[in-house]
Amino acid sequence: MGFGLTSAAQDVSLALQKPKLPDSETINKQWENTTKALNISFASSNVRFAKEVPPAVPVQNTWNTSAWKGEKIHTQLLLWANNKVAGVSIEPSDLKDQRGNNIKKENITAGIIKYVITDEFRDGCGYRKAADFDSSYVADQIDTKINNIVINARNTQPVWLSIKIPAATKAGIYSGIVKIKGEKEYDLPVQIQVLDKTLPAPAQWKYDLDLWQHPAAIARTHQVKLWSDEHFALIKPYYTMLANAGQKTITASIVNEPWGHQTYDDYPSLIKWTKKKDGTWSYDYSLFDKYIAFVMTTGINQRINCYSMVPWKIAFSYWDEATQKEAVFTESIGTPAYDAFWKTMLTDFTKHLKSKNWFQKTYIAMDERPMKAMQAVIKLLKSVDKDWKLALAGEYHQEIEKDIDNYCIASKWEFPADVLQKRIAEGKTSTWYTCCTEPYPNAFSFSSPAEQVWMGWYTASKNMDGYLRWAYNSWTKNPLTDTRFTAWPAGDTYMVYPGPLTSVRFEKMIEGAQDFEKIKQLQQLYTKNKNSAALDELNKALGNFSIKSLSTVTADEVLQRVKPLLNQ
After folding, report:
1. 172: alpha, beta or left, given left = phi > 0 and alpha = psi -120 to 50?
2. How large is the C-alpha radius of gyration of the chain?
3. pLDDT tens across 116-172, in order?
4. Beta strand 85-92 with 155-164: parallel, antiparallel or unpaired?
5. Cα angle vertex 252, ends 251, 253, to 5°?
6. 335 C-beta neighbours (distance < 10 Å), count
7. Euclidean distance between CA atoms 455 and 416, whole angstroms
8. What is the pLDDT of residues 293-341, one digit of tens each?
9. Residue 25 burial (C-beta neighbours within 10 Å; 0-12, 13-18, 19+)
10. Where would one find coiled-coil regions in this protein (predicted)?
11. Could you give the C-alpha distances from 138 to 106, 119, 141, 158, 442, in angstroms and in order?
């Protein structure tokens, strides 16, 4: 299949099934049956709407919903027209209840959803050429900085409408309007029933989110010097946005290219390794210290995952004083030379972390490495200090499970029930991840938005702690317009866009995290109140979440059945 840029049709999430656009004649007839004036409707946030096709939805001019205090809710607002309509603006009002309480309009944001180039799953992992894959435009990027919208003739423009319910809001029914100004004005009613239940702030969420950060990508995209003051200033809003999604972990590189340069941008070490002329070693932690302390100020402060003693390519670079140039250590894991190379560093690093009071939250992290290599590293690490913690994202290995404090398994695996209960009792973290391997559920730019919410429910159903994805912002060459990469399906390398701009995927992931929090809170409440009927109903709903089932039923269909249980 060649490279042809056509708008992606409305999303379906069945395995490997890519939506097909109607033919041009059918599309023309659909537009001919559309009124000339601006058309407006609220619509599900679980659907990606095609740009060049009039949306096939029943027109809804009112948004009625319910929410918990502290919750962030959203919907889509669709604008489409047969003729060009310029200068469209969106102005929400305060939402008020009958007693005079209100939700200020400052808590309401409207962002146009922009179209980016995506491709298809096909074979998942593996290098690819764009010309060999079916490419299309898909609605994903959300830009809240634009409020002068142009609706081109025979185009649909989706808008992301988001409302943050302050935690101090009084329970009740709040009403207001969203005013659309175009060739004329439209007032769309909004009504929210705020329930007498409260979500904690994201920093207190039990949901353990881990999206790996890529600081060098920010420097390249914004064209500033790596690690300059300008770079750190630019990093802050990205990481604050991630902290507000419940992120718990700092991604810290302690060697150059811990993933074998599989990203578009470099991934430099935060620690400078130097072999001195007399053969001894020194380690400069100044950048590591600055970076970690800085990231903690954004709210990401529970865990420092250090990558990695087991990189994808055993090639550790360092500065050699004797030759005055970069050198590379390549001895295999488990050899005496490898052990000596790392033991010296780990002994020094342990002492440094303890002086910073960071040792207890620091983990040596490994990603999809062979078990024998991991066993050798575990043995070496514990010989330096028995209290070292380890994190692993990879397959499930019973042989090393007891040694992994933060264990994240691939979606094809499940923790044995007895092992999981023991891990919970020991305070260990047990999560899961998706990558280029899984057609569904996933977070590619062509994935169903509902799958991101589905993941939160799946996590709760398996009694796990959270979810990991390998990249928050490992951007492609032109990330604002083209999510495709030279390897893996489009969107695999990042969840948000330069700006920072959020995405449909990222916002739905937050919804899934919130649902997880609701589920856990309701399970505790029903158990405490001995409301066995409600508890049984919720637990039965959780039984619907198996990855295999997504081959026959969409994530959206499952969620439509079970979501009402959270807002009763």
Report:
1. left
2. 25
3. 999 999 999 999 999 999 999 999 999 998 888 999 999 999 999 999 999 999 999
4. unpaired
5. 125
6. 11
7. 19
8. 999 999 999 999 999 999 878 999 999 999 999 999 999 999 999 999 9
9. exposed
10. none
11. 29, 9, 9, 11, 16
Closest residue by Cα to residue 462 from 415, 522, 395: 415
Cα distances (angstroms) measured from residue 125 to each of 307, 489, 530: 22, 7, 48
Calpha distance 514→185 (Å, rounded): 35
Q: Tell me which residue has tokens 């507000």.
A: 244
Does residue 249 contact residue 300 with C-beta atoms inside 8 Å? yes
Do the beta carbons of residue 557 and residue 549 sit within 8 Å?
A: no
Which segments of 201-286 are extended strands (E)? 208-211, 249-253, 272-275, 281-284
Q: How far apart are CA 562 and CA 544, in angstroms?
A: 9
Contact criterion met (CB below 8 Å) for 80 and 449: no
Measured over the CA atoms of residue 514, residue 518, residue 524 and residue 525, the dihedral's sign is positive
CA distance 162 to 252: 32
Residues near 307 by beta carbon (within 8 Å), at least 6 away in sequence: 251, 252, 253, 254, 255, 258, 259, 365, 366, 367
SS3 409: strand
Measured CA to CA, the distance from residue 121 to residue 488 in angstroms comes to 8
Task: Please tell me the distance from the alpha carbon of residue 442 to that of residue 444, in angstroms, as a whole number.
Answer: 6
Per DSSP, the three-state class of 218 is helix
Is 406 in contact with 303 (CB distance < 8 Å)?
A: yes
Residue 376 parent element (H or E): helix 371-384
Cα 94 to Cα 108: distance, rounded to the nearest angstrom: 9
pTM (2 decimals)?
A: 0.95
- Report the alpha-carbon distance of residue 337 to residue 333 in Å, rounded: 9
Measured distance CA(58)–CA(41) in Å, rounded: 8
The span from the CA of 317 to the CA of 507, in Å, is 38
Count of H helices and E strands in the chain?
A: 11, 26
DSSP state letters, 138-155: EEEEEETT---EEE-TTE
